[in-house]
Amino acid sequence: MERYISKRIKNIPKSFLTDIFKLAADEKVISFGGGLPNPKFFPIKGIQNACNKVLEDDGANVLQYSITEGYLPLREYIAKRYKDKEGIDVSSDEILITSGSQQGLDLIGKTFVNEEENVLVEKPSYLGAIEAFSVYQPNFCEVVLEDDGPNIDSLNEVVDENKIKLFYAIPNFQNPSGITYSAEKRQKTAEVLRKQNMILIEDNPYGELRFMGEPVPSMKKYYDNTMVLGSFSKIVSPSFRMGWIYAKKEFIEKLVVAKQAADFHTNYFTQRVMYQYLIDNNIDDHIKTIVDSYGEQRKTMIDAIEKYFPKEVEFTRPEGGMFLWMTLPNNMSAMDLFYKAVEKNVAFVPGIPFYAGEKIENTLRLNYSNVDSEMINTGMKILGDTVKEMMEK
Ligand SMILES: Cc1ncc(COP(=O)(O)O)c(C=O)c1O
Fold first, then answer.
1. Is any atom of ligand 1 closer than 6 Å to the C-beta of 231?
2. Does the pTM of the predicted model rise above 0.70?
3. Is residue 62 in contact with ligand 1, taking CB distance under 6 Å?
4. CA angle centred on 295, ends 330 and 230, rounded to 5°
5. CB distance 126 to ligand 1 below 6 Å
6. Does ligand 1 lie within 6 Å of residue 233's CB atom?
7. What pLDDT digit, counting tens, does each position of 291-339 carry?
8. CB-based contact 71:268 (threshold 8 Å)
9. Which domains occur in the chain, in start order?
C-alpha cells in the first residue's frame, strides 16, 4: 500500500485531533476542545432570505460555472471593507475568493513554497496551517511568542541564521494562544522581515472579534510585502467554506493558476448567497452580538481559572477571538490531564499539535466561544480540581 502514496502525503500524520475528538464526541462531555463558532449566532433567516432572493432573481446564472477570482461584487465588498475598517486602499483585483481561508493556506503553499525551503511560523501556530504547508515539504523555523507578539531577539536570530521565504503569522487573537501583536511589536517585526524582504502571510480570521482593548492596524500597514487571509467562517458561518486572499495583483495572478487547478472557483451559488446576505443585513450589528457574547464567555472562563486553578498555572488574557492558552507547571503533561479530564467528561486540546518543531508538553488550548457560561464554570471547576489533584501526587 505504502508504495502508492506520494512523498508529499506519506509523512504527514493524520490529524491528531481526529482521535482526540472521538473521545470528546459524547454529548455529556463539556468540550473546550473545538474551534467552533457558537451556532446560536448563525443567521439562519437572513441566509434563507438571501438564498430565495438569488434563486428567484437570477436562478440560472447562480447555478452556472463562474470565474476563478470570485464574484466581482463580493470582491468589491471585501475591498471596500478594508478601506472602511482599516483605511487600506484595496482593489477588487487584489482579492481572490477561496474555499475557506484553509484553501488560501494550501494555495499559498502550492504557489510559493518549494521543497526544503524555510517557512517561519509562530511557536505555537495554527495546526491547520502547519498541516497545509507540510504538504509542500518545507523546513519549519519557529519564533517564540510572548504576550504582545514575537520575541524580537528570537526573530532576529532565526532570520539571521536562515534564508526564509515566508513568515506565517496570526497577529490578531491567535489560534491557539489568543495573543495579539502590539503596535510596537508589529513595527519591530516588520523591521526584521525587511532584512530578507520575505513574504508575510497575515492570517486574520478573528480580527473582527475584538471585545476589549484598542484595535491595532493590520501588518499590511507596517510591511508592504504582506498577503492577508480573511474568512467569513467566524462572522457568518463556517459551512459556507468562504474566505479570501488579499495580495498584490502579481501574486493573485499566480494564485489564480493554483486555484484553477484545484477547483476552478469557489462555490458560486454560495458566493452569491453570501453577498446577498451581506448587503441586505447589517453585518456590523451581527458581529457586535457575537462579540458581546464571546466577551462574556471569556470573562466567565478567566474568572473560573482564577477561582478554581492553582496559582502556578499561567494563561493568556485574549482581547478577542475564541481561545486562550494555558501553561501548566513544568513537570505536568497536558496529555495526561486530557485523559483524566475526559474521564470526568471535560475536554480541551493539548498543546502539542500546535508546534511545528519542538513540542511543549505542558501547554493547552481552551475554547470559550462554543460553551455557554454555566457550562464553562462547571467544566473549568472540574479541570481546575483535576490539575490540583495531579499536582498533589
Ligand atoms: C488561524 C486560522 N486560520 C485559518 C482557519 C481556517 O478557517 P476557514 O474556515 O476560513 O477555512 C482557521 C480555522 O479555525 C484558523 O483558526
1. yes
2. yes
3. no
4. 90
5. yes
6. yes
7. 999 999 999 999 999 999 999 999 999 999 999 999 999 889 999 999 9
8. yes
9. 2-42+285-392 (3.90.1150.10), 63-280 (3.40.640.10)
